[in-house]
């Protein structure tokens, strides 16, 4: 694509993107420190035997990596923010096409809610310029990614953020039309573009 | 013998290389009685030489071959075979070919001439003739094949490297060097990389060895400089020469002699000044070539001095306006070399010229960093240049620092000052020279004018870190010369230490920050910078480090007073600060006094800190104890690196420093050590003084440190244990003991809810003891009676009469029957001291245990562990189990004969009988039975690690394997315990001197798994009433199998992979949600990784069952969410999470391991399952499901 709609978009650096706050762990200034600290304060091997009822909590390390956490907005954001833009080799997160505040889950996720209940995920996409011809492709990419990564009880809606595109009504109509979406995925060229966009998703 | 004619004909007619004919010809010439033979040999090719002008290709080829025959013969000929006149004649003959036979004769002639030049009869004037003949080739030279040209280059190069020929050439041609002019004419336009390498070498040799006239020099310079900058095109047939080789060869020409300086340096600078037209690679090439010239030109006054200012004028912009690191580095290197080569007077002129630019740039925030780099490059060149630079630059730097307001400018100026200080430190380390390094500039005044001002100005984090870095370097500055002394005054050094201690040690404990309103990240950066700076300064300032330790100790009460933080957080802060102290003090040895100085001061200080915290909660004890442990390990590591040959441990003993002397008398070497068991916190000043006087090489220091470490362990053991009257503790005590060891009163004073932390403290103390004792050699361990210490825990070595009595009684009672001593684990305080005994036992060598009485040790221990109801539980019991494993592993056969071994086994066998006994009224409850069973397995685990394949020896193992999983009520739990046999254990590691046979995995597999595969399936036709039981037994058996297999290596069981797959399939369906499923999955993933082929036939069952496991684990999860109590729920839910994770990991890997055609039949159902799994409650499992879904949907 030689004639890019927006040849010079604003790009955020990786550190500016919203990330999940990782639980604070002890950090060591050097590998040598970690080596010694491991020898001294790691959990003794015999406590890993079955039925071992001796606890070994020192307040710093989480014993259990299998904590239950519902799918939240940040997780949805993480799923779609690393989709590559069809014009530039840059992620949608870095281009601020998808933003954390524009991801909405209803009913809101909570630890005690029924995991099988029907949920709706609404993602508002912000094209980099108001006349972006690839807005539909962007929306389609987000939609396909979420449909591939969310369980069947999640309904995905992708819309263009109000006021961010000159023809947002039309684009929204296309994105909401299931038949047109299905037809678009049958199109080999479009499928190729989408595959390329989703290549960078883990 | 064949005539020369025949040999020549044979050679010419041969297809490939015929070595035989030339060899025969050479032998014939050597054996010939007269000179005629040589004539005949040359004449043998006459028939092909008759018509040199003949252009027929066949004739050309045969003529070339005939000439080659002569050349090859010369290769085989002895160097003394030809007389000088014969050599001359032959040279004449081959020379003539250069003018007469350009098509067939050149290659062979070159080869032949090369041989002739090596002959004894070769006379130097002939060299000139050869070169002049070569020159006659004219334009035909470039038409020769590259290989032929290579021969000619080789010939010329050989002549030029011969000093006699070179001398003759110089004599004959004088400064006109006609031969070179002729060669230049012929050889220009060379393009072959290999030939160019030779050609450049010829030019370099010529420039180095001849004194040509200026015109010739210009010609020669043009010959190689035309190639600069040289590149190499990618070729289909690589020559093996890289572009770097070519660059090096051209560079050597440029740097060959100062005579060409007047051309080379302006040429290079001119190329450099072409601006943007020059690429980075070329620029670096130019700069490195210039650097080579500056480094190698011998006559500095003529070769370098005239161009110094010109070089500076060009190069300064490369740094000043440069952006590419490679270019900047190369420029700085060239400038450094220039400064190094210039004589003092010229250096001063050069520097003054440079300073005119740099002085202004330093005042300008935009160019400070670049000017700093240039100044550092000049300063680092030599001590003279350093004193010149610092004399002018340092006052300017302090002034600029005072005047500037910009933080980045300050940071750049400080970076320059720090670099100068570092350069100075390096120059000071050049011992033995009387250096003038401007000591007066780097003293208190610089501190006051520079760093102190910045510190007081409330600068930001970036400037502060630079300033702290510099202060540490300043405090380490010493005077130049043979007896270096610190330059800064004591007061300034103290002040620096006090300041650096604030962000690194004191403020973190007091809950303050150095710079208000900074982010946590910036605070950490400041803290780490201060720590690193202190680490660099302390090797020269033991007193400063001592003060730091005292500051740390005095801040601890303030930490405890902080009511806002919880005790766990405060303990973590305490530990982090103590670890920082360890990083500061234990990363390097001190420069004067004993290398141990800082190590001992720190550990003494930490012991004092521990003593002051004994009334507080045990979490603080652990924080300090862990820091002591890390300080011990770090210090030992630092010393071990310095050991000759870097051998680690243990060090061989020599009689002079035999164990007892250096270990028991460590307090004689080092005074003022703390004895916290006697409430003495020691005298740090006295310790410092005695360590200052204690000299010694690294090996003896290392031993002293081992002695000191043991001294620390001993006093901690004594402090936290106390001798108690046996009757007061328990009535069921061993009658032979009237006193036993229990916990000290420190534990009684603690609140009861801290018991768990106390036990953890005891474990950590035991770990410290293990680290210290295992570094001692077996002899030393024996000499120190460490086996006895496992029972008496160093009591009796502290000079107190009551404990001495206890020690001697324990020692006497154990040795009364002369059978060696015994290890007793004290039952007092519910066996809570057992981990301490284990800590010492774990680090002992097997040969150290030779002194014990095995029966008296093992049998009582077995009795204790086999008792019902159980005597002790939790971590204490695990410690006793581990001790049992160590004893069964390390006791030698010699020491414990078969009959005694069977006594021990019988005891355990009886214990197992209790486990398997059921439906009897007095049978123990389930937890007791399991505990007893685990103890038995621990004993066997130690034993099988160094298995002995006799049937009599292994009856207990076999009985247990045969019967335990079939136990009706608790068979499943018993089966799960089988993992203990092979699971990794701290006590059974090489590091702790355990006896581990290399093939133990295979042996255990053969004994405990292989015979039982059939039993993993229910019998085909059971009676109806037995079918349920049979099925359960088979499942239990499978549980046992996987509990063992999960810890074995794949190679141990790969031979039975097919059978294992069948058990896997059944187990997936039968195990339900439990940790057992994870064992199955571990084994399955091993199979998939090593031999996926074996799974191919079973994919349908594996896929279906694994997805079913996932589904069940998911459902269990949701049902538990409602039904289970919170505490229980956590464990079980995380178990279920683990199950789901391992199931999906397997599914995720399948598409990578198999071709799609094997998986496509399952694609739809798997994708359906995976899409549901995308809604898993655990985030990690969801991520696996998503990537699995992607992999499976891509199958086609």
Automatic annotation (TrEMBL), chain A:
Superkingdom assignment: Eukaryota
GO biological process: protein maturation
Family the entry assigns: Belongs to the MIP18 family.
Protein name, as recorded: FAM96B protein
Xref: InterPro entries: FSCA_dom_sf, MIP18
Automatic annotation (TrEMBL), chain B:
Subcellular location: Nucleus
Predominant place of localization: nucleus
Domain MMS19 C-terminal: 706-1150
GO terms of biological process kind: DNA repair; iron-sulfur cluster assembly; protein maturation
Top-level division of the source organism's lineage: Eukaryota
Residues forming coiled coils: none
Keyword terms: DNA damage, DNA repair, Nucleus, Repeat
GO cellular component: cytosolic [4Fe-4S] assembly targeting complex; nucleus
Domain MMS19 N-terminal: 57-319
Family indicated by similarity: Belongs to the MET18/MMS19 family.
Protein function: Key component of the cytosolic iron-sulfur protein assembly (CIA) complex, a multiprotein complex that mediates the incorporation of iron-sulfur cluster into apoproteins specifically involved in DNA metabolism and genomic integrity. In the CIA complex, MMS19 acts as an adapter between early-acting CIA components and a subset of cellular target iron-sulfur proteins.
Name the record gives this protein: MMS19 nucleotide excision repair protein
Organism (species): Apiospora kogelbergensis
């Amino acid at each position: 694509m030689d004639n890019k709609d927006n040849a010079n978009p604003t790009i955020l650096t990786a550190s500016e993107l919203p990330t999940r706050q990782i639980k604070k762990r002890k950090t060591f200034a050097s590998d040598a420190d970690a080596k010694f600290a491991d020898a001294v304060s790691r959990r003794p091997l015999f406590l890993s035997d079955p039925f071992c009822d001796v606890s070994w909590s020192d307040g710093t390390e989480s014993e259990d990596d299998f904590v239950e956490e519902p799918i939240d907005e940040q997780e949805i954001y993480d799923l779609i923010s690393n989709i590559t833009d069809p014009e530039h080799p840059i992620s949608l997160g870095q281009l601020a096409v998808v933003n954390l505040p524009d991801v909405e889950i209803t009913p809101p996720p909570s630890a005690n809610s029924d995991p099988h209940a029907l949920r709706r995920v609404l993602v508002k996409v912000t094209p980099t310029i108001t006349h972006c011809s690839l807005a539909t492709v962007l929306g389609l990419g987000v939609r396909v990614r979420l449909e591939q990564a969310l369980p069947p009880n999640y309904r995905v809606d992708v819309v263009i953020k109000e006021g961010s595109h000159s023809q947002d009504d039309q684009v929204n109509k296309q994105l909401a039309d299931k038949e047109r979406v299905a037809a678009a995925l049958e199109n080999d060229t479009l499928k190729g573009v989408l595959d390329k966009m989703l290549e960078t998703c883990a | 013998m064949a005539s020369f004619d025949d040999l020549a004909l044979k050679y010419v007619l041969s297809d490939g290389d015929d070595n035989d004919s030339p060899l025969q010809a050479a032998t014939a010439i050597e054996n010939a009685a007269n000179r005629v033979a040589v004539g005949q040999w040359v004449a043998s090719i006459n028939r092909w030489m008759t018509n040199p002008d003949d252009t027929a290709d066949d004739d050309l080829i045969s003529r070339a071959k005939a000439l080659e025959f002569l050349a090859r013969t010369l290769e085989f000929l002895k160097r003394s075979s030809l007389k000088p006149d014969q050599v001359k004649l032959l040279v004449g003959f081959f020379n003539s070919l250069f003018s007469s036979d350009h098509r067939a004769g050149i290659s062979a002639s070159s080869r032949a001439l090369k041989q002739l030049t090596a002959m004894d009869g070769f006379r130097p004037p002939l060299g000139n003739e050869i070169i002049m003949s070569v020159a006659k080739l004219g334009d035909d030279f470039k038409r020769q094949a590259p290989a032929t040209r290579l021969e000619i280059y080789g010939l010329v190069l050989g002549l030029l490297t011969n000093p006699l020929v070179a001398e003759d050439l110089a004599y004959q041609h004088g400064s006109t060097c006609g031969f070179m002019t002729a060669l230049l004419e012929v050889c220009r336009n060379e393009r072959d990389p290999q030939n160019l390498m030779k050609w450049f070498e010829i030019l370099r040799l010529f420039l180095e060895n001849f004194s040509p006239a200026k015109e010739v020099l210009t010609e020669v310079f043009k010959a190689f400089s035309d190639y600069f900058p040289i590149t190499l095109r990618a070729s289909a047939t690589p020559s093996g020469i890289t572009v770097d080789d070519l660059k090096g060869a051209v560079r050597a020409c440029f740097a060959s002699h100062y005579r060409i300086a007047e051309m080379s340096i302006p040429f290079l600078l001119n190329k450099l000044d072409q601006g943007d037209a020059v690429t980075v690679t070329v620029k670096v090439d130019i700069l490195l070539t210039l650097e080579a010239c500056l480094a190698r030109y011998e006559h500095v006054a003529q070769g370098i001095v005239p161009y110094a200012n010109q070089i500076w004028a060009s190069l300064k912009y490369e740094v000043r306006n440069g952006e590419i690191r490679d270019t900047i580095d190369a420029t700085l290197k060239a400038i450094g070399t220039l400064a190094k080569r210039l004589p003092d007077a010229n250096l001063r002129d050069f520097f003054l010229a440079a300073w005119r630019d740099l002085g202004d740039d330093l005042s300008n925030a935009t160019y400070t960093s670049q000017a700093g780099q240039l100044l550092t490059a000049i300063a680092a060149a030599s001590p003279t240049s350093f004193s010149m630079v610092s004399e002018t630059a340092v006052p300017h730097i302090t002034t600029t620092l005072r005047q500037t307001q910009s933080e980045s400018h300050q940071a750049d100026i400080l970076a320059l000052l720090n670099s100068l200080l570092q350069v100075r430190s390096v120059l000071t380390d050049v011992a033995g020279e009387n250096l003038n390094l401007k000591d007066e500039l780097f003293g208190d005044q610089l501190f006051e004018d520079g760093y102190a001002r910045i510190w007081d100005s409330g600068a930001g984090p970036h400037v502060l870190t630079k300033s702290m870095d510099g202060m540490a370097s300043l405090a380490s500055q010493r005077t130049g010369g043979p007896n270096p002394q610190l330059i800064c005054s004591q007061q300034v050094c103290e002040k620096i230490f006090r300041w650096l201690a604030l962000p690194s040690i004191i403020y973190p404990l007091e809950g303050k920050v150095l710079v208000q309103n900074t982010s946590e990240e910036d605070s950490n950066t400041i803290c780490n910078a201060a720590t690193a700076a202190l680490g660099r300064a302390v090797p020269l300032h033991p007193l400063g480090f001592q003060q730091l330790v005292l500051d740390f100790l005095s801040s601890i009460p303030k930490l405890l007073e902080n009511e806002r933080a919880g005790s766990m957080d405060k303990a973590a802060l305490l530990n982090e600060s103590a670890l920082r102290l360890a990083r500061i003090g234990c990363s390097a040895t001190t420069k004067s006094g004993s290398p141990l100085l800082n190590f001992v001061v720190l550990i003494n200080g930490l012991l004092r800190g521990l003593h002051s915290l004994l009334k507080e909660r045990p979490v603080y004890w652990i924080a300090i104890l862990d820091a002591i442990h890390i300080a011990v390990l770090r210090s030992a590591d630092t010393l071990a690196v310095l050991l000759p040959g870097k051998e680690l441990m243990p060090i061989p003993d020599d009689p002079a420093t035999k164990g007892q002397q250096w270990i028991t008398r460590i307090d004689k070497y080092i005074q003022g050590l703390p004895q916290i068991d006697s409430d003495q916190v020691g005298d740090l000043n006295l310790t410092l003084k005695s360590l200052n006087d204690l000299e010694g090489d690294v090996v003896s220091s290392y031993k002293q440190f081992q002695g000191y470490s043991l001294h620390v362990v001993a006093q901690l053991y004594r402090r936290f244990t106390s001798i108690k009257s046996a009757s007061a503790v328990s009535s069921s005590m061993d009658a032979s003991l009237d006193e036993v060891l229990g916990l000290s009163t420190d534990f009684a004073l603690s609140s009861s809810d801290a018991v768990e932390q106390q036990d953890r403290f005891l474990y950590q103390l035991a770990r410290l003891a293990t680290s210290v004792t295992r570094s001692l050699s077996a002899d030393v361990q024996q000499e120190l009676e460490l086996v006895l210490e496992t029972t008496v825990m160093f009591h009796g070595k502290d000079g107190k009469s009551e404990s001495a009595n206890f020690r001697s009684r324990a020692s006497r009672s154990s040795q009364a029957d002369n059978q060696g001593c015994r290890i007793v684990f004290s039952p007092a305080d519910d066996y809570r001291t057992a981990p301490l005994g284990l800590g010492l036992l774990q680090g002992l060598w097997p040969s150290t245990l030779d002194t014990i009485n095995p029966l008296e040790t093992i049998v009582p221990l077995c009795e204790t562990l086999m008792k019902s109801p159980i005597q002790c539980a939790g971590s204490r019991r695990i410690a006793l189990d581990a001790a049992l494993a160590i004893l069964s592993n390390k006791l030698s056969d010699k020491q414990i004969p078969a009959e005694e071994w069977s006594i021990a086994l019988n005891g355990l066998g009886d214990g197992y009988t209790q486990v398997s006994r059921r439906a009897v009224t007095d049978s123990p409850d389930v937890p007791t039975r399991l505990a007893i069973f685990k103890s038995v397995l621990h004993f066997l685990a130690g034993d099988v690690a160094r298995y002995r394949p006799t049937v009599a020896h292994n009856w207990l193992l076999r009985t247990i394997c045969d019967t335990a999983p079939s136990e009706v009520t608790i068979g499943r739990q018993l089966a799960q315990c089988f993992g203990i046999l092979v699971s990794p254990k701290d006590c059974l590691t090489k590091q702790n001197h355990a006896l581990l046979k290399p093939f133990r995995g295979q042996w255990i597999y053969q004994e405990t798994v292989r015979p039982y595969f059939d039993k993993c399936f229910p019998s085909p036709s059971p009676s109806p009433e037995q079918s349920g039981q049979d099925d359960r037994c088979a499942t239990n058996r499978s549980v046992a199998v996987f509990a063992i297999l999960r810890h074995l290596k794949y190679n141990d069981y790969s031979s039975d992979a097919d059978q294992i797959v069948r058990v896997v399939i059944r187990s997936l369906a039968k195990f339900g949600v439990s940790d057992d499923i994870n064992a199955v999955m571990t084994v399955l993933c091993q199979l998939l990784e090593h031999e996926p082929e074996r799974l191919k036939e079973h994919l349908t069952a594996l896929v279906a069952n694994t997805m079913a496991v996932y589904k069940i684990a998911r459902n269990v999860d949701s049902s538990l969410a409602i039904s289970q109590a919170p505490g229980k729920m956590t464990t079980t839910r995380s178990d279920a999470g683990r199950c789901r994770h391992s199931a999906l990991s397997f599914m995720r890997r399948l598409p990578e391991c198999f071709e799609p055609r094997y998986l496509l039949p399952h694609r739809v159902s798997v994708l359906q399952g995976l899409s549901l799994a995308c809604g898993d409650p655990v985030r990690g499992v969801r991520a696996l499901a998503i990537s699995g879904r992607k992999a499976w949907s891509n199958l086609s």
